[in-house]
């Protein structure tokens, strides 16, 4: 997958969402300590505005497959866990700092509202957001597309190991399969 043409150019800047599917579990997450996770889907919002651009997103995808590096960020603990499976990545190329705005829109668009399954402080130690990780009991790609759209952006979707027999209600306009 390291040379997969479906992943964006490594030098481009952008924002992204990693979508994980998981079973109910408890995991140690760095300084946040042991965290209990509900069964369902977790969406992590990240930015790739530094000199490496979207190479950061690709790092998360590879880490979820290879599980071969030391955790640097909170989301790495999910990527390396056998109880979490990265199934989808949504991203948009931009040089604007919209990560927190995207996180805010997602916080209020998930089924169950902002309080269900949100992990305070997750992925947001460098900003004022309460979290950059959100829970959904339902496959959240439509919520993610809507949140990007509300920011005036269209996102690209890359599916990774998702069983489409379990999900038939999606817009295949921007879908790429890894």
Structure description:
There is one protein chain. This protein has helices at 55-66, 74-80, 99-109, 141-150, and strands spanning 14-22, 25-29, 33-37, 40-48, 84-93, 133-136, 156-159, 175-177. It is built from four helices and eight strands, in the order ββββααβαβαββ. It has 178 residues and is an alpha+beta fold.
Integer count of domains = 1
Uncertain residue ranges? 163-178
Radius of gyration, in angstroms, nearest whole number: 15 Å
> Strand-residue fraction?
25-35%
Form type: globular
**Please, what is the average pLDDT?**
81
SS-based class: alpha+beta
Q: What characterizes the major β-sheet?
A: 6 strands, mixed
Strands of the largest sheet, in order across it? 6-4-1-5-7-8
Distance between the termini: 8 Å
- List SSEs in N-to-C order: EEEEHHEHEHEE
Q: Count the DSSP helices.
A: 4
Helix content: 10-25%
Number of strands: 8
Considering the chains and any ligands shown, give keywords for the structure.
single chain, 178 residues, alpha+beta, 6-stranded mixed β-sheet, two-stranded antiparallel ribbon, 4 helices, 22% helix, globular, disordered C terminus
